[in-house]
């Protein structure tokens, strides 16, 4: 039976990720018994996550909290929202009431729900160029048009943002919000400077736009400062999508959306029929994790130094083996963006690197909102071991030197 005719019109906006092909190819090679080094992950390191401690919490919660296997309120269990409100005040430097927090199925759930209540087909969403592919896809699925603003080592070019906004407004286009990952940006690994953060807030205020702050990497900062936009927000313009994924593990699916008012109300109404509630068992585990100070004990004190070491290993390896290449130097997040020489094909390079050298990387191109970025390669340092990073970069550099 031909089922295409049953698809809704909006199904035309649903596009698969261009990265699926890379991952499929890697899975095929692995199935054939090839051992691959992966620098392609979007995950933290399971060995830097206190799995046995979390296991004990899971056991305790399941045995002692009957509600943990039940439906709970759509906006999250009150105890977790209260704990999170204290946590954000302590570690992010801003105060929000538990009532403004909605616990979601990861940051992904937060962004999807927000998009659903903000985006009309044809609306413009401003992002960094490049930006996180899943967010681009989520907004496009709702009919948004993505306009990406170029970045440099200080984050989104706010001068170009202003120019672009004037152009769009002159054409009568409707811009709804600016989506940004200001800290440890995925895929660039760049952290927005304080000046740019101020400029961004000012521009949003002048043009009366919302800012959606994707805080996925706010807790993965190795040095320097990065005041959250929300902590600098004077007129309530910043909506936060946060997550414990990069801290506790991506499998728990615990994130949050911070927004009050009419938007918060609509998100909550939208949420019930979508997912009923974020995984209850994970919510109770997250509650105990935060309440017992495990964030500090295990993440800040043990996990972060481990990631920093791996970040350093990757940067050192790149500097040694590709001294002339251009790449970003992240102070936060999980990624380094490497640029092949101008005009080189990153997609083809990634394919060849996998086939010939057994190293999996993610081409940067699919993260770009326009035709640029063809020579970009996203490298992950959080998930592989130090040895894998060093060996992986060595082999990458071999291919690089063979080709360029
Ligand atoms: C990982 C990530 C998220 C959130 O992932 P969840 O697992 O759904 O919490 C959001 N934005 C960016 C940029 C990310 O890298």
From TrEMBL:
CDD domains membership: AAT_like
KW Transferase (keyword) present: yes
Protein keywords: Aminotransferase, Pyridoxal phosphate, Transferase
SUPFAM superfamilies named among the record's database cross-references: PLP-dependent transferases
Database matches in Gene3D superfamilies: Aspartate Aminotransferase, domain 1, Type I PLP-dependent aspartate aminotransferase-like (Major domain)
Family: Belongs to the class-I pyridoxal-phosphate-dependent aminotransferase family.
Quaternary context: Homodimer.
The protein, known as: Alanine glyoxylate transaminase
Native organism taxonomy: Archaea, Methanobacteriati, Methanobacteriota, Thermococci, Thermococcales
């Amino acid at each position: 039976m031909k089922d295409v005719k049953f698809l809704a019109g909006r199904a035309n906006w649903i596009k698969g990720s261009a990265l699926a092909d890379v991952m499929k190819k890697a899975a095929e090679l692995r199935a054939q018994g090839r051992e691959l080094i992966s620098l392609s992950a979007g995950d933290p390191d399971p060995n830097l996550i206190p799995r046995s401690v979390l296991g004990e919490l899971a056991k305790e919660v399941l045995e002692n909290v009957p509600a943990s296997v039940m439906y709970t309120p759509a906006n999250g269990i009150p105890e977790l929202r209260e704990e999170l409100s204290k946590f954000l005040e302590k570690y992010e430097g801003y105060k929000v009431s538990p009532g403004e927090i909605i616990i979601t199925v990861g940051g992904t759930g937060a962004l999807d729900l927000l998009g659903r209540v903000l985006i009309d087909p044809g609306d413009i969403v401003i992002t960094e160029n490049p930006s996180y592919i899943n967010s681009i896809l989520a907004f496009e699925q709702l009919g948004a048009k993505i306009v990406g603003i170029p970045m440099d080592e200080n984050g989104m070019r706010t001068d170009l943002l202003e120019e672009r906004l004037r152009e769009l407004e002159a054409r009568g286009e409707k811009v709804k919000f600016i989506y940004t990952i200001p800290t440890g940006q995925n895929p660039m690994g760049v952290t927005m400077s304080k000046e740019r953060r101020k400029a961004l807030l000012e521009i949003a205020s002048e043009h009366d736009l919302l800012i959606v702050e994707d805080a996925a990497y706010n807790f993965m900062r190795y040095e320097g400062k990065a005041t959250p936009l929300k902590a600098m927000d004077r007129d309530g313009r910043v909506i936060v999508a946060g997550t414990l994924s990069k801290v506790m593990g991506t499998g728990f699916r615990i994130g949050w959306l911070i927004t009050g008012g009419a938007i918060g109300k609509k998100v909550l109404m939208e949420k019930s029929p979508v997912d009923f509630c974020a995984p209850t068992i994970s919510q109770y585990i997250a509650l105990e994790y935060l309440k017992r100070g495990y964030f500090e004990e295990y993440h800040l004190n043990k996990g972060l130094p481990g990631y920093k070491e791996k970040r350093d290993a990757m940067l050192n390896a790149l500097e040694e083996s590709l001294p002339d290449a251009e790449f970003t130097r992240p102070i936060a997040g999980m990624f380094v963006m490497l640029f092949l020489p101008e005009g080189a094909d990153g997609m083809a390079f990634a394919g060849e690197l996998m086939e010939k050298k057994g190293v999996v990387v993610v081409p940067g191109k699919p993260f770009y909102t326009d035709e640029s970025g063809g020579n970009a390669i996203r490298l992950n340092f959080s998930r592989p071991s130090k040895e894998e990073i060093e060996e992986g970069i060595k082999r990458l550099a071999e291919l690089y030197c063979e080709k360029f």
